[in-house]
């Protein structure tokens, strides 16, 4: 069931609920195909049934044993990742030209802002996250699980500057499926969620917090609207 959480001429935030990955993927592409210069940007908050997704350059050999979990080829960047219940997923349908006339040059800053939104959201629950050079996503910066990955990032930026796919943050998941792949192509990488770190947070609260921080960091400057 879809609910509109925020609506303005610049941005709509929609909560699409639990949705099959292929349905979301098809809808993202259809939205991006149909949008024009006046189409508001949209954030889609979703939760998926268990699924593995492959980036354009992914090596299927990193799927070690799918155990009946569907494997879907996508057109985002990156390697293999897992989506499942208890994970915040936010897809970002944005026109980067509204933030920078040379959208391709802005793409790196766009990624940086998404990662910062995750770091800031985790900090609300006293979890310290950090970036790793050359490995998009957010990793724990201290503690016994230092280096474990807690959030993944994968995007598609079309030649016209329009984006889709997005970011996922692990809240309260069955982590076993992450051990059946090499997450993001890294053998033996530990993947963790907020629950394992002792944080009991409602999924809806984390969804709202991350969406709000993304909204704040990715808002288009008034002089560029």
TrEMBL record:
The protein, known as: Octanoyltransferase
A Pfam family this chain is assigned to: LplA-B_cat
Miscellaneous note of the record: In the reaction, the free carboxyl group of octanoic acid is attached via an amide linkage to the epsilon-amino group of a specific lysine residue of lipoyl domains of lipoate-dependent enzymes.
Residues the record marks as active site: 184 (acyl-thioester intermediate)
Organism: Undibacterium squillarum
Site (Lowers pKa of active site Cys): 149
Protein function: Catalyzes the transfer of endogenously produced octanoic acid from octanoyl-acyl-carrier-protein onto the lipoyl domains of lipoate-dependent enzymes. Lipoyl-ACP can also act as a substrate although octanoyl-ACP is likely to be the physiological substrate.
Top-level taxon in the UniProt lineage: Bacteria
EC number assigned by the record: 2.3.1.181
Main localization (coarse): cytoplasm
Subcellular location: Cytoplasm
């Amino acid at each position: 069931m879809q609910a509109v959480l925020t609506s303005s001429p610049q941005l709509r935030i929609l909560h699409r609920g639990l949705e099959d990955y292929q349905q979301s993927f098809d809808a993202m592409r259809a939205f991006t195909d149909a949008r024009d210069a006046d189409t508001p940007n949209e954030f889609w908050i979703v939760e998926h049934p268990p699924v593995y997704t492959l980036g354009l350059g992914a090596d299927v050999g990193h799927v070690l044993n799918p155990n009946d979990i569907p494997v879907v080829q996508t057109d985002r960047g990156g390697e293999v990742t897992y989506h499942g219940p208890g994970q915040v997923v936010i897809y970002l349908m944005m026109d980067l030209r509204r933030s920078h006339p040379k959208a391709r040059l802005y793409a790196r800053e766009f990624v940086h802002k998404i990662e910062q939104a995750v770091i800031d959201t985790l900090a609300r629950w006293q979890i310290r996250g950090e970036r790793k050079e050359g490995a998009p996503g957010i990793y724990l910066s201290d503690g016994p699980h230092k280096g474990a990955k807690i959030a993944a990032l994968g995007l598609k930026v079309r030649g016209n500057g329009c984006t889709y796919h997005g970011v996922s943050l692990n809240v309260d998941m069955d982590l076993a499926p992450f051990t059946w792949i090499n997450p993001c192509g890294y053998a033996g990488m530990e993947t963790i969620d907020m629950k394992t770190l002792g944080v009991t947070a409602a999924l809806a609260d984390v969804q709202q917090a991350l969406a709000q921080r993304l909204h704040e960091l990715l808002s288009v400057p008034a002089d560029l609207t």
